Amino acid sequence: MVVSRSHPRYESLMIRERLVKGYEDGFVAVEGLMAHGRGEAFDYLLGERTGKAAGRALRAAAASMLTSERPVISVNGNAAALCAKEMVELAGIVGAETEVNLFYGGWERRRKVAGVLEECGAVRVLGTDERRSERLSGTDSPRRVVDRDGIHKSDLVLIALEDGDRAAALKEAGKRVVAFDLNPLSRTAETADVSIIDNVARGMAELASIAKEYRERSESWLREITDGFDNRDNLAICINEIRENLTGRARIAQIGR
Ligand code: PTJ
After folding, report:
1. Distance from residue 32's CA to the centre of ligand 1 (Å)
2. 116 neighbors 99 (Cβ within 8 angstroms)
3. 180 CB less than 6 Å from ligand 1?
4. Could you identify the atom of ligand 1 that is nearest to the CA of residue 200?
5. What is the pLDDT of residue 257?
6. Of residues 226, 204, 210, the one with CA closest to residue 75
7. Distance in Å, CA 182 to ligand 1 centroid
8. CA 195 to CA 178: how far, in whole Å?
9. What is the per-residue pLDDT across 15-51, written as a single tens digit (0 to 9) for each?
10. What is the pLDDT of residues 67-98, one digit of tens each?
11. Which runs of consecutive H residues, i.e. helices, occur in 68-94?
12. CA distance 176 to 108
């Protein structure tokens, strides 16, 4: 579909088109289109911008990734459609592996997702070879299939648009979890160590940019940021941001009466 630049919802429609194209190319699950709709609704409530709470979480996420020894960026179909280039860039900055990990579909779709990352310059993408797979305990989710050299060995995993079960299983396995999720009420957001309540289509680039800036900082400076971050407090701030945003919108609605 051709979207006119003058359309008031141009950006949002273009993001939607990326997912439709990903679905047509076979690397986005049909369920991913529904998941996007849910995300869009929450993004609306957030005012479609990166709020203060998300900014704080992004800084804690960058510091966490830079201080981790074996970080892994877990990539699913939607994330590949919306921010493949930014995830590859982030991986390079923080020295992370990229690993395909899917909820729906099998090895063929995994390889297609890997292809998208490779087109963006990734030199090594894990999670595409069944012979190298291990099982993450504590979850029946198809996402339990992880790469022996990636998530299995990692100390931190960045996940985006995921299910709460796997976030909990990753924590149970002793890993630090950084999550992108537009829904501050989701189990994933509640379970992760750092929940970034932001659209990956905006936030992943911002995370790469902060990590680039923080790369020169000392370990102790970075640790101060991670130690000073409380995910539950930050989620509460985020939920209040939504409330304030809605209060503002209610006032505007009344003025227009
Ligand atoms: O590619 P696969 O097979 O791994 O499947 C990916 C999906 C997304 C289909 C799968 O993980 C899924 O079903 O996810 P859920 O359970 O629908 O959860 C998706 C969460 O991500 C919801 O809380 C959404 O609000 C949120 N979300 C949707 N779009 C975005 C988002 N969060 C950040 N950025 C978005 N663009």
Report:
1. 6
2. no
3. yes
4. 34
5. 66
6. 204
7. 9
8. 6
9. 999 999 999 999 999 999 999 999 999 999 999 999 9
10. 999 999 999 999 999 999 999 999 999 999 99
11. 77-94
12. 29
